[in-house]
Amino acid sequence: MIDPADAAKRLAAARALELVHSGMRLGLGTGSTAAHFVALLGERVAQGLKIVGVPTSEQTRAQAERLNIPLSTLDEIPELDLTIDGADEFDPSLRLIKGGGAALLREKIVAAASLRMVVVTDRSKQVATLGRYPLPVEVDRFGLESTRRHVLRVADETGCSGAVSVRLDEKGHVLVTDGGHPILDCAFGSIPDPEALARGLNAIPGVVEHGLFIGLAKAIIVADADGVEVIGDLA
Ligand code: 5RP
Question: In this structure, are 119 and 180 located in the same domain?
Fold first, then answer.
């Protein structure tokens, strides 16, 4: 049986594919929704579409390589036309929480290098206030506990509260990102002032990057059983 959420993710990905034209330089996101986009893109490439992609994770790189999608790096192509990526949450101001798949650092670098970032998602990710999904914060391994306490302090100063814990992998070991760092998952429940929290997190020396994406997404393609809605501007 087809999972309705997965069908919605594929629908959103298919709508995003309509934005792609030959000659484009594309950022390729990470996660199950982005994977639908990469799969559909692979079909178009096999039919002759000429694009080059920059993957946001080793997982996406592996998928794109299997599909013979031409790949490059931001060192060779420092500016991209369009990035298509998923999200763990989005609010009415197109602010996002990302990093559920531990790829937030490369995802943010690639989004920031893109003229447009368009998010593909199913309806379950839509919230009035960010924070239901635990906010991922990628940190340096050095001074981890000290950094965790700074994160708790910044949370307190910006109206957030909740457990901040080191993410573990399936085997119970500290998860390590593609960049070689651990992740702190911040179970705040609600983030009343995402900009203030982002500023505070950016000021902590041990924080490599956080999963608040503010001012990056130009549009969100959100799908459910009723079809596709575009929030923001696809142009
Ligand atoms: C990975 C991400 C993903 O975009 C996010 O976790 C959404 O994933 P999915 O499409 O599987 O729900 O930020 O770091």
Answer: no
On whether both 203 and 173 belong to a single domain, the answer is yes
Q: 2 pLDDT band (50/70/90 cuts)?
A: confident
Q: State the pTM of this model.
A: 0.97
Number of domains in the chain: 2
* Residue 121 alpha carbon to ligand 1 centre in Å: 9
Q: Is 107 a catalytic residue?
A: yes
Query: Residue 40: which CATH number?
Result: 3.40.50.1360
| Catalytic-role residue among 89, 107, 138, 209 | 107
Distance between CA 222 and CA 207 in Å, rounded?
A: 31
Which residues neighbour 37 within 8 Å (Cβ) at sequence distance 6 or greater? 13, 16, 17, 28, 29, 84, 120
70: containing domain? 4-126+214-225
